[in-house]
Amino acid sequence: MKHRQHGRTVTRQHRRAASRKSSRRRLGRRILVTVSVLVLAAAGCGWYLYDDLARQIGSSHALDKNAPRSAGGATNILLMGLDSRKDQEGNDLPADVLQKLHAGSSDIGGYNTNTLILLHVPGNGGRAKAFSIPRDDFVEIPGHGKDKIKKAYGLAKAAKEDALVKQGVTDHGQLEREGREAGRKAEIETVRNFLGVPIDHFAEVNLAGFLHIADALDGVTVCLKHPVKDRYSGADFPAGKQTLNGPQSLAFVRQRHGLPAGDLDRTRRQQAFLASATQKLNSAGTFTDPLRLVRLLDVAKQDLVIDQGWDLLSFIQQAKNLSGGNVEFSTLPIERFGRHNGEDINVVDPQTIKRLVSKAIGANSDTPAPSSATPTAPSSSTSPTAEPKSGPTSSGPAAKTIDGGGIPCVD
């Protein structure tokens, strides 16, 4: 009898154990199914967001498909920041936005590309390099002659619109669209010829873009060596490390009055802003935070224009590797300051620039470098009394580097 009871006891234990095991299997299957559904939902949401972005973001045909392309999987991206108080359709920005910009009325600024940065992303996954081109560099602009590099966009836009008006075109939208396409094409060609390297993609952002990017990231951290107060840009900051909101960020990157090197210091501020923003993209979990990502995508839709055919989904994946210190920023050197038609300019040596950029990215430039480092003589239209170059970039051709891995302190 006891043996039978013991047998029944063992059987009941086996049944309970089997029941628990079966329950664990069912729970495991439920968890697996739930996780699978969440993964599929997330993937579906990601594709929906990408499809929505692809349909609504500004697209341009300005990039010449027959132009040279980078080899070995590398990518060169030209970033153009327009100093324009207009939206992508050429309409005035809303009054409340203009007030936040602290940049005057919509009639100011024109269509100068006050920010020009070539971003080189190597094909081997190495560290990317970003070259800032000072906006007043005196270069050859195709179809125009020598002028400040920032003017290529606006000059070509105005010329295209004038030609269309002579043909009887009166539609504001058509004039704006075709004018801007001509401007983009001219700026891309000017930079390509000046640097002597291919341009594979480009992105254009308007003045409000800095404001919206900073707001989408909940502020951008910067560091100043000295306190500043400038009524022109609205910059009013203490010395040291601080987090700036959208309007403050725009004032930070626009200030040039009261800085030791003027425009060159403004270029370094743009670099510091971008270095901090790329670092925050990674540290703030932007790529894993759906709400923050949606806010950034909204910024792209209202402030950004890119070349048609650029696979942004692939680049967003690549952008993860560009954040957190994997971008090295530098400013291309100038020879000295000068004057042209009553305006201040940067006198530059195109051959030195080509050689420097080519060496930095490990590519062959389109134009062979000169056999010596003797600077090219300035144009006859440049004042012979040009001032020697001064400021932080005066110690030779090497550009000052700002490391995106930290928060660089700037003037």
UniProtKB/TrEMBL annotation:
Cleavable signal peptide: none
Highest taxon, organism lineage: Bacteria
Boundaries of every Cell envelope-related transcriptional attenuator domain copy: 112-282
Entry-linked PANTHER family: POLYISOPRENYL-TEICHOIC ACID--PEPTIDOGLYCAN TEICHOIC ACID TRANSFERASE TAGU (PTHR33392:SF6)
Compositional bias (Low complexity): 367-386
Similarity-based family: Belongs to the LytR/CpsA/Psr (LCP) family.
Keyword Transmembrane helix annotated: yes
Disordered: annotated span: 1-23, 362-411
Gene3D superfamilies, alphabetized: LCP protein (3.40.630.190)
Keyword entries, A-Z: Membrane, Transmembrane, Transmembrane helix
InterPro entries reported for this sequence: LytR/CpsA/Psr_CW_biosynth, LytR_CpsA_psr
TM annotation in the entry: 31-50
NCBIfam families with a match to the protein in the record: lytR_cpsA_psr (TIGR00350)
Stated name of the protein: LytR family transcriptional regulator
Pfam families in alphabetical order: LytR_cpsA_psr
